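Next comes the chain:
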Amino acid sequence: MSAEPTSAPTTHLTPGASSGVVPTPLDPAVPDPFAWLEDVEGGESLAWVRERNAGSAAALGGEQFATIEREVREVLDSEAKIPHVAKVGDHYYNFWQDAAHERGLWRRTTLGSYRTDDPEWETVLDLDALAAEEGESWVWHGASVLRPTEAELAAGEPYRRALVSLSPGGSDSDVTRELDLVEKRFVPESEGGFRREQAKGGLGWRDADSVYVFTDFGPGTLTPSGYPRVVKLWHRGTPLAEAATVYEGTDEDMYIAARRSRTPGFERDLVTRSIAFYRSETYLVTDPGTPEQVLTKIDVPLSAEVGLHREWLLVELRDDWEVAGRTYRAGSLLAAPFDDFLAGSRDLTVLFAPTPTTSLVGATWTRHHLVVNVLEDVQNRLHVLTPPELPAGGPWTRSELPLGGDLLSVGVGAVDPVGTDDVWVVTTGYLTPSTLGLATGVGHDPQVEALKRAPAFFEAEGLVARQHFAVSDDGTRVPYFVVGRAELVSGEAGPAPTLLWGYGGFEHPILPGYSGTVGRAWLARGGVYAVANIRGGGEYGPAWHQAALREKRHKAYEDFAAVARDLVARGITSPSRLGMEGRSNGGLLAGNMLTRYADLFGAVIVGVPLLDMKRYSHLLAGASWMAEYGDPDTDDWEFLRDYSPYHLYAAEREYPPVLFTTSTKDDRVHPGHARKMAALMLDAGKDVTYYENIEGGHGGAANNAQAAHMAATHWTFLWQRLGR
C-alpha cells in the first residue's frame, strides 16, 4: 500500500501417453511433443495436472506431511506475528491474514493503540466477505490512498479516497476499484467511482477527480509482454473511452505508466517508459492530456534509475556515465537540484560509490534526510545524508544509523516523507525473529523504539548461522550463508541433510531473514539450510548482476555449483544428502543444476520455473526478460540453448529425484514450463514428483492454507529423499 506522495507445434500426445521418440536433447526444429501442455486451462492439460497432483498426494501424504502442514499453518496464521503498518493520515493501515481470515482484512488503528500489545483494529475491507458475496477468490494486491490537499487537511478533511487492487486467484492481472475510506464502501460507477477491469496495469491518482490509467484498452494497446503500452488521463464521470492519451509507447516497449507526485509545493506529473528491463526513460509532463501537453525527458542514461524528492533529483547508475568531463562509476548514487538539471547543469554530487565489497541496496527519503542502505559483503550498513538548503547550496552532511549486527538484515522505510523524519526499521536474521522499530531523530540524535517483536517459532538454542565464501570456476569468491546445529554447520557431525537455496538474477540480493517455516520444518528436525549469493543477483551491485547476464548466465550456475562443492568439502553434507531449491528465475537455476550438475545433488525442487528457453519469450510475460536472458529467435539461441534445461535433458542420463511445482493461475511464468519438463522426464521413467496449485499466481498460493500445503509438499519431498 502506498499513500501519496509517493505458433504452436502440431505433434500431440494425449495425457499420459508416451511418444517413445522424444529427441535427446530436444531439437527445436522438431515439433515439441508436449506443446499441448501449454494450453493452461485446456481440458486435457488440467486432466494431466489432476492426475499428477493425485499421484504426488499419494506419494507424499501421511503423518509427516500432515505434521509439517499443521506446523507451517500455525506460523502463517499466528496472531503474534508482526502486523506491519503504513501511515495514512492519523491512521496506521495493515493487511492481515490468519485462520479466520484466509483472504484477509484491510484494517486500521491509531499509533497509540498500535503501541499496545492488543491494538484495536477497525476493519476497512473484508476480502473473505467480498469473495463470498461476489463468488470470486480475491487476492489482495494493495491500495493507493490519495493525500488530501493542504487546504483540505487544514479544514479537517479526512483521507477518504483509495484505489484498491484485487486479483482473481492470485494472477498478476487484477482489477482496481475506488474505495471510500470513511464510508468503507466501494464507490459505484453510477456515482462516478473509478473502476478498471481485469488486466495487467493499474490506476494512479492525479487528483480527487482524475486518475492515470494504464491497462488493456483493446487490440494494439499491450506490449509483447502483455503489459500496458498506453497511458491515459481519465476524469471522473466520463467514459474510459474518452480518456485523453498522455503517452503511447512503441510495439517493442515493455511497460508504460504515469504517476503524480503530490508533495505540497513540488507537485509533478511523470511518465515512465520501460523499454526493457534495465532500460527506461522518465518524462516530466506539463498540462497532461491537453493540446498544450509537453513532455520533457530527464536526460540520464537509459540504464539509470531516477527518483525525485522535493528539490532533488537522484540518479542510480547501472553503467558508467561520462558527462560534463567526469566519469561516474556503475553502482553510484548521484544527486543534483532538479530544476538546475533540467536547465542543463550537470553538477552532480556523488552520494555513494561502490567498492569491491560494497553496493547500494536502497535509499529512502524522509522530510529532510536521505537514509542510504549499503551492503558490505551482504551485510547492511545505514548512513544518513542531509542535503544542503537551496538555493544557497553546499556539501551534503553524513551521519550513521547504527542498527543491526552481524548476519542481520536491516530494512528502512519512511513513515511519512512529506511531514516527518521518522523511519520504520525492520531487523531480522536467520535465527533472530523480526523486530519492527520506529526511529525518530534521524539525522540528529536517533532513537529507536521497538514497537513489535515477532515470536520465536522454533527453538534456536544450539543452532548457529555462519557466512562462508566458495571459489567459483573463474576464481570469484562467492558468499553464502549456512544455518543449522553447531556440530552440523562445523562439519563435525555430518554429512547432514542440507537444502541449498538460490536465485541469482535481476539484480536482486538475497539477505538473511527469519523464517518460522524453515525453522520448524527443517532446522528443528536436524536439517541444514544454506543460501548462495551467486552472480546475477545484486549483492555486489550492478557488476555482480551483469557478470551473469545473457551469454554469461553460466557464471551463476558455476557459482552455485561451487557453493554445493564447498558444503561437501567442509563435511557439512554429501551429494546424496544435498538438495537444492529455486523459484522463478531460481527455477531456471534449479533446472540447470538438475541437467548440468546432476551428480552434485540428491534432490532438486524446481518452483514456478522457466525451463524452455526456446519458447519462453512467447509465453506470457517472457518477452520482458530478454534483456536478462537473450532473444531465442535470433543468434542468441546459440548461448541460450546451453542453459535451456528442456533442451539439455538427455533420457539416457541419471538424474536426482525432482519436484516440480507451479500454479495454473501464474500469468507471469507460464505453467507450461514445469508441465512440459515433468512430462518429458516422466516419459523416460525418471523420479519426478509434480504439484500444480490451481490458484496462487506466481507466488504459488492464494491463502495460508494453500501456502502451508505447498510448503509441506516441499519439505516432505526433501525429507523423503535426503533424510535417510
Observations:
- The two ends are 45 Å apart (CA to CA).
- The chain has four domains: 7-78+584-724, 80-198, 355-456, 457-573.
